[in-house]
Structure formats: C-alpha cells, structure tokens
Amino acid sequence: MRKEKGIKMTAKELNLAARTVFAEAATEGLNGQMAVAQTMYDQLYHNIIGADGSGFGKTLEEVIQNAYTTPTEQDIRGSSCLEAVIRVFLEGQRIFTDHYVYFFMSDRGSSYWRNYWDTHYVNMGKLKNHTFWGVAIPDDQKTQPFARYVAEVNDPDGWTFVYEEAGKDSEFLENYPRLNNGNLVEVLGTQKGSDGAVWNLISIAGAYAGYVRADLLKRK
C-alpha cells in the first residue's frame, strides 16, 4: 500500500471526518471506509477541479458540507471509521494507490453523474457498495508516518481531562471528557499546546480523538 506524508489534524477534525465516514460507509468495512476517507483527503489536498482553484472547498468543513452526507450524531464506537481516517489522514495510507479520488457513488446514485464521471474521469471500479472515480497520478515518494503507540493514563490526581484542542483553555471532549488512571489510549501525535505544554493527540476506544497532556501518559 503506497503511503504519502501524513498531515496535521486536530482532534475536532478527526472526529468530524470519522462521523462523516460513518454516515457514508458505516457498513462498508475498513477498506471501504478508507476509500471514502481517501476521497475526502484528495478532494481537500490534491484537488485540481475548478478554474478558480476552489474545488470542493478549502477546509475540511467546507469539503464535507459541499460533497457529503451530514455527519452522524450516533455513537460510532464499534466501527472502524476513526481508524480509517487515522490511516488515511495521519499515516498517509491509500486504498487507490495510483489515483487521486474525487467522486464516489452508491448503486442507487444518479445515472447522469455516473455517465458524466465515466466520460471525464477514470473509473476505479466498485468497492463494496460504492464506485469510485478520479485521475491518474505519478507514484509519490514514500514517507515514514508517525509511529502510533499505546499509553496508559498516569495522573497524580488519579484521572485527567480530555480536551478538544491542545491546551487547558480548550473545551473538554464532549463524548469522552475524562480518563482514569490505568485507561489505555493510542497516541497518534505530539504537539505544543496553546498553554506552552506538550500535548498528545490520542484515540479513545477507537472512536474518539482528543488531547491529553503528554506528561500524564505513560508509554506501555
């Protein structure tokens, strides 16, 4: 599987992308969900559509608003949607290794757009219930993504808050605002927070992304 350099994303963006992938492909399995996530990624970072360069949107929120089903408000625990987004956006993994993917459609989609995309783009075929279209690209140089690892919460107070952004002035993570000592999380990245401290971007229960101060986590 070809990889390209992963990008920086906030926990809020990861959660938004995962909820969107769930809305589009909850039953598609990891590969199908990664294909939808790759379409979102390519629309945002490799877009060549639109004479003014605006394409699908200049931010993740704009791309989702312009091209996707409304993100779900359901509990996505038990799905692999956040994992799919992490692999595509943070680790640079791709399902379609030699194409930028711009469009996908279920079997029930419009025949007009299906015919239009078949005429103007490369049909990469069907993956589970969706067909994907895009444009050919050269094989980019492989890069080394951030190496994820498991860590245990280790706070002198016995528990710690989880935040939406890196910094104590941020809001608590709505769906998972607190972790207890001994809880295991997956560390996805490290960055300096708005308060000057070092924070880890983490995945909780494979469903929620948030931030915890790095010195309150102990690598397993």
C-alpha Rg (nearest Å) = 18 Å
User: What integer is the average pLDDT?
Assistant: 86
Flag low-confidence runs: none
Strand order of the largest sheet: 9-8-7-4-10
Task: Put the structure in a nutshell.
By secondary structure, this protein is of the alpha+beta class. Helices cover 27% and strands 26% of the residues. Strand 7 and strand 8 form a beta hairpin.
Describe this structure in words.
The protein has 220 residues and is an alpha+beta fold. It has helices at 11-25, 29-45, 60-67, 81-90, 111-120; strands at residues 99-106, 122-127, 130-136, 149-153, 159-161, 178-180, 184-192, 198-204, 208-213, 217-219. The strands form 3 sheets. A 5-stranded antiparallel β-sheet has the order 9-8-7-4-10. Strands 1-3-2 form a 3-stranded antiparallel β-sheet. Strands 5-6 form a two-stranded antiparallel sheet. A hairpin with a 3-residue loop joins strand 8 (198-204) and strand 9 (208-213). The protein is elongated, with a radius of gyration of 18 Å. The model has no long low-confidence stretch (mean pLDDT 86).
